[in-house]
Amino acid sequence: MAAGLTDETAQTAPSHAPQPCVRLSGVTKSFSGVQVLRDVSIDFMPGEIHGLIGENGAGKSTVGKIVGGYYSRSSGDLIVFGDQVAQWDPPLALARGVAMMHQELQLVPALSVAENVFLGIEHSRAGLLRGDEERRLADIAAFAGFDLDPAATAGSLSIADQQKVEIMRALAREARVIVMDEPTSSLTHDEAERLHGVMRKLRDRGCTVIYVSHFLDHVLDVCDTVTVMRDGAVIRTAPTAAETKASLIASMIGRPAADVAYPPLPPEPDRSGTPLLSVRGLATATGVRGADIDLWPGEIVGLVGLVGSGRTEIARAIFGADPSTAGTVSIAGEAYHLRSPRSSIEHGIAMVPEDRRRQGLVLTQTVRPNMTLPHLSAFARFGLVRTGGERAEARRLIDYFGVQPGHVDGAVATYSGGNQQKVVMGKWILGDPRLVILDEPSRGVDVGARRRIHEFIGETARRGAAILLISSEIEEVMGLAHRAYAVSGGRVTGAFVPAQTTVDEVIWRLFHEQGAGRTGATA
Amino acid sequence: MTASTRGKGQGFGGEAALRLLQTYAVAAMILVLMVLLSLSSDSFLTVQNLINILNQNTPLAIMAAAMTLVIICGGFDLSVGAIFAVASVTAAWLALNVHPYAGLMAAPLVGMLLGFVNGMTITTLNIHSFLATLATGLVYRGIAILITGGTLLPVRLDDFTWLGRGRIGAVYYAVIVLVVFAVALTILLNRSTIGRKILAVGGNEEAAILSGIRTRRIKIVAFSINGFAAGLAAAIATSRISLGQATAGTGMELEAIAAVIIGGTSIYGGQGAVWRSVAGVFMLALINNGFNILNADPFYKDLTTGLIIVAAVGISAAGRRR
After folding, report:
1. Which residue of A lies nearest to B214 if distances are taken between CA atoms?
2. What is the crossing angle of helices B274-293 and B299-318, to 10°?
3. What is the ipTM of this complex?
């Protein structure tokens, strides 16, 4: 009822209703036992641009997705236009005027702008489309102030224009709350400016924009209100006018020391000899724009950066999973040019990819064939796999990592995340690699598995292997690495020694640097 | 197969039962059909009838056995019927113009070559095997017609027809070839490095690439083996009917795919077994045979077969929902 009432008023008289259009009250959220949101209460008012900021994993995206209906909440209340909602999913949210714009845009590339905007809500007569989309689109475009060719196919548009299509799609469904999850992450500076213009226009017309971003300059530039999150909790909600970049960063950092104890750091490596890995000026089509990295035997080096900064892309380029467009990679002083996963394995490089289910495991197979896959020929004679040796090796690795259940032919698809990760680790340590690249090795695993993985990292370095550790948890890099590189906008922007700095300083630095390397940020 | 012991765990009972059903459904259905047919007709459970069913279906069973590898690898091959035709007319032509043995030996090799071309087409153009083999199948069929010039090539030479017609005691040579081929493919799939890689590529291509597997090469191997099997099947069939013809093998690609799916090999790739596809062929053959000996209305034959395939695909897809 309330939604019906506000239908007119919200668009014409934003100042009329002091009541929030979306209110979160005491919301918590857990993913497989890990609490990612704790007691979150935020009021989103009509006609405001409300920024949600925080470090990687602070919970800002989770809040956006709960409002948009993509995640359910574990407990707490969600009140939309005055009504407490129990059931909430994307279609219901849209029906109530709440739309979400994802990082990955969800347009049909072959359809026109108009067809995309009205997809699923076309006017029809006796089952035939009336084909009046372009006329209806003109009204919405005028409202939003866009001029896009309605007949252009969505696939031919720039990302910025595709975002406009997404916004119009939300407007066509009479959305009055639009959640935007990191909308500027793939935009140029000018495009981001224009998007901000659109956001202001939407606000002036009474819409609420929830702007999830880690670009502080953008948030300061465009938002009326900002909510700072840390560790899944709201630190404060305040008018943006009262904030500065420094005040925002200060609230984002300063989290209490993690209760996780890290194993002791392996001894400092000898850095007088030839580095095991030496990367110079690496660039790729996937967004790496210049990476210089050195790594000595026995050394653990971290790559820290915000989500989307290009850490994974650097790792994939070194391993040969993506082609490089420029730069050199040397292994133990010898240039390594024609990189491919196959060749890297032969060079003694291992890479534990970030997504164990999509990239790490063949879920249709059991533990044993998964572990031996990269080194199958070592277990074969005349092209036939000798299962005795294979079983023994799988057994050894299962025991080494403590994989549960410990059956060599257990159905890995049914294992917990931590045990799946241990299987992937076992797979990559099997050939005794001299360089191990770990991309988010402890993401989404339980505390026990996490501790085992941390121990493993130290043990492997003590054995003389070099480790390149990528983690979104800056604490993890700080607790485990000898040295670390900061990555921003596809570039390695500097090196630091974790023992000589603090997590807060590193976060400070990352948020300050984001403007330097990335065209999307204001200087 | 390996997961059957997991059934005792809580919540895994349904999953284990489903896995068991996917694995042994085809064997159970064959048993049921055999019992039903034995009860309803005296002429079914005779040695002669069973030998005939087995022998008649060896070419298709050989093709289905190899098609299993292609489907496990995540592909389809719609060109095997046409490869069968090219191999058939090549064998007949060589038997007439060179030597009968040259013809018999050339058929599998020609098949393998065409399968290799399929593999190269798919991996270099990076197009789905469904489309690629739809096109190459038409090309191959055209080649078969060009070779014969539209005529039939009868080959009435004992040196040529022994393979399809000869037998040791009650067992046809062709059946022995089938058994040897199916066992060899089973070993290849379950024991060899190539088989392991085929399973990995079909199960998760991205993980396979990151594990250093040259996935293109594996696909080319799978399609080459599939072509080889079509050629081998053609040698047996052409030898049996002593006739090479460009229209031979029409529709066999779909029968082979149907048999693989009835056998419970996952249409999504990554899982499957050779013996089950061979069993799928005999399941289809039994339905066919049942309609014949029961004098049932053949109008219902396709309908029955179709429903069974739907059921098989349903079972195959059931485990994928999460």
Report:
1. A342
2. 150
3. 0.86
Nearest chain B alpha carbon to A341: B212
Chain A residues within 8 Å of chain B (Cβ atoms): 319, 321, 340-346, 351, 353, 358-366, 369, 373-374, 376-377, 380, 383-385, 387, 409-411, 414, 427
| Gap between the terminal Cα atoms of chain A | 46
Between A438 and A473, the higher pLDDT residue: A438
DSSP H helices in A281-365:
311-319, 341-346
Among A490, A515, A493, smallest CA distance to A282 is for A490
> Please, which residues 182-201 of chain B have a Cβ atom closer than 8 Å to chain A?
187, 191-194, 196-197, 199-200
Examine the pLDDT at A28 and tell me if it is beyond 80: yes
- The structure's pTM equals 0.79
Q: What pLDDT, in 10s, does the model give residues A402-433? A: 998 889 999 898 888 889 999 999 999 998 99
| Mean pLDDT score across all residues of chain A | 86
> In the Cβ-directed half-sphere of A120, how many Cα atoms lie within 13 Å?
9
pLDDT band at B3 (very low <50, low <70, confident <90, very high): very low
Q: What is the mean pLDDT of chain B?
A: 89
- Angstrom distance (rounded) from CA A90 to CA A76: 19
- What are the C-alpha distances in Å from B57 to residues A485, B62, B64, B237, B283? 65, 9, 10, 10, 11
Contact A365 B212 (CB under 8 A): no
A12 pLDDT above the threshold of 70: no
Q: Per-residue pLDDT for A521 more than 60? A: no
Inter-chain touch B207–A360, beta carbons under 8 Å: yes
Give the minimum alpha-carbon distance from B209 to chain A in angstroms, rounded to a whole number.
7
Q: What is the DSSP string of A76-112?
A: EEEEETTEE-SS--HHHHHHTTEEEE-SS----TTSB
Q: Using DSSP bridges, classify how beta strands A300-305 and A324-331 pair: parallel, antiparallel or unpaired.
A: unpaired
Give pLDDT tens digits for A123-166: 766 667 666 777 788 888 887 777 788 888 888 887 778 888 88
d(CA B19, CA A414): 13
A363 to B204: CB separation less than 8 angstroms, yes or no = yes
SS3 A205: coil
Best mutation target, A343, A362, A408, A438, to test chain B (most B CBs within 10 A): A362
Q: How many CA atoms lie within 13 A of A184 on its CB side?
A: 32
pLDDT tens profile B208-231: 999 999 999 999 999 999 999 999
Q: Residues of A with CB below 8 A from B209's CB?
A: 321, 341
Contact (CB, 8 A) for A371 and A423:
yes
Q: What pLDDT sits at residue A365?
A: 93
A186 pLDDT more than 80: no
Tell me: pLDDT of A14 over 60. no
* Count of alpha carbons within 13 angstroms of residue B229, beta-carbon side: 35
Instruction: Provide mean pLDDT across the span A291-304.
Output: 95
Q: Is B46 on the interface with A (CB under 8 A)?
A: no
Name the nearest CA neighbour of A492 among A270, A306, A310: A310
DSSP 8-state symbol, A411: B
pLDDT of residue A295: 95
CB contact, 8 Å: B271 with chain A? Answer: yes
**Residues of chain A neighbouring B271 (CB-CB closer than 8 A):** 364
- What are the structural domains, with CATH classification, of chain B? 19-318 (1.10.3470)
What single-letter amino acid sits at B320? R
Amino acid identity at B141: R
Query: Which domains does chain A carry?
Result: 2-97+175-252 (3.40.50.300), 107-173 (no CATH), 274-348+433-517 (3.40.50.300), 357-431 (no CATH)
- pLDDT for residue A260: 58
